[in-house]
Amino acid sequence: MFRPFKGRFALCLLTAILLSGNNLIAFPQEADSIYNKKIFTAEELVRGERLFYGLAYPPARAVNCTGCHNTVVSDTLNWNPDALQISTLYREKSASDLGKALLKPSGKKMLEVHAGFQLTAEDITLIKAYMDRFVTIGLKPDKPVITNLLLFIIASVLFLFSATDLMITKKVSRKWIHYTILGVTTVYLTWILVIDAILLGRSLNYSPDQPVKFSHAVHAGQNKTDCIYCHSTAHISKTAGIPSVNVCMNCHLLVRTGTRSGTFEIAKILNANDSQVPIEWIKVHNLPDHVFFSHAQHTAVGKVECMECHGKTEEMDMIVQVSDLSMGWCLDCHRTRNINFLENKFYSDYKIMHEKIKAGTAGNVTIDMLGGSECMRCHY
Questions:
Q1: Dist. CA 292–CA 377, nearest whole Å
Q2: Mean pLDDT (whole number) for 169-197
């Protein structure tokens, strides 16, 4: 006599779980049909965009995806993936997969950020539709600013106008105006040409976005990882070397979640390891092709510490070129830096200098005194 009651109670309990457990105000069959929707109207895409920007619901319930995921190009490190990255990642996945990531994420960081999300199956489907469209839209570029190139063009036009009118057309009767314009623009154009010529090939403060948001502050600073562990050829080769995925996997075989980036960035390492496709890191410190430089010569022989050229990398999230790497910068070091000449066996063949030291005619030895400023040492 109690079976009908038990059946109704079980049905009510199941309904309550479905309605509250995943925040989807729809039965599984209804949710599946909504998730499988493929064609969307312009109005639905606009609503998906408003949902993505947190504009569809009151602030108490709004979910603003752009609060964590950049929609514009930025030179500031954001540990969260930008909107283009997550849109590309989920383009080949279903709206149901996106719903699981939004409402029941697996990572600790996402669990904290996504706690309390209230999105229906329709909301998630529309967000997914807008994200698929965002792949073709891409990140918005920075607003254009007045650069030296624009000023150079304006100055060149003024110079040509004044010179032409002064010598040919002669429409402006007051010649002092032309002389003033010609004088100012000549000084400015000459200054720009000289400065840009000096800076040609230099990349001071260069800090490119890397394919993986790798932080030296976390690895070298927080975790005290030795530079040589990753850049293992720095003391035996011309180049410091870029660590292979195998080196990364020595730690990330176990470490799958980052304290700042969650699982998204480390997943790139794991995918590269599984696919056997190397990560295309972008080199920061570059020298002209006609310059010879050896890391081994400087680190193993000269005992130069990494930070002397690369700055305090253990404090950098994104590596920045802190030295201009100019010829003058190198020569200043060669002329002022004292070397351990007597105890370093590398310099045992410099017999003339050893004799000068014994005779008392030479004291501290610099690279410049051993021919370190000769052109052929670096250019040959």
A1: 8
A2: 92
Which residues, including other chains, have CB under 8 Å from residue 71's CB and lie 6 or more apart?
Answer: 82, 83, 134, 139, 140
pTM of the predicted model as reported, rounded to 2 decimal places: 0.75
User: Structure tokens of 350?
Assistant: 């410099």
Provide the pLDDT for residue 219.
Answer: 94
pLDDT digits (tens, 9 = 90+) for 339-352: 999 888 889 889 98
Alpha carbon distance 378, 324 (integer Å): 17
Report the C-alpha gap between 196 and 315 in whole angstroms: 31
Q: For 234, which DSSP code?
A: T
Distance from CA of residue 355 to its chain's centroid?
Answer: 52
Dihedral (Cα; 344, 348, 349, 354), 10-degree rounding: 110
Task: Report the alpha-carbon distance of residue 236 to residue 342 in Å, rounded.
Answer: 22
Residue 338, strand partner residues? 366
* CATH number, domain 16-137: 1.10.760
- Any idea where the domains of the chain sit in the sequence? 16-137, 148-198, 206-324, 326-380
Q: Classify 262 as helix, strand or coil.
A: strand
Please state the rounded mean pLDDT for residues 4-30: 45
Provide the β-strand partners of residue 262.
258
The one-character DSSP state at 296 is H
| pLDDT at residue 170, as a whole number | 87
C-beta of residue 292 within 8 angstroms of C-beta of residue 378 = yes
pLDDT tens per residue, range 51-99: 999 998 988 888 999 999 999 988 788 999 999 999 999 999 999 999 9
- Token pair in block for residue 113: 């950020």
Task: Read off the tokens for 191.
Answer: 């200054």
Cβ atoms < 10 Å from Cβ of 305: 11
Per the CB < 8 A criterion, the answer to whether 119 and 23 are in contact is yes
| Cα–Cα dist 269/196, whole Å | 39
Phi, psi dihedral angles at 273 (to 5 degrees):
-70, -40
Q: Which residues contact 199 (CB under 8 A, 6 or more apart)?
A: none
Distance CA 47, CA 95 (A): 16
204-216 mean pLDDT: 93
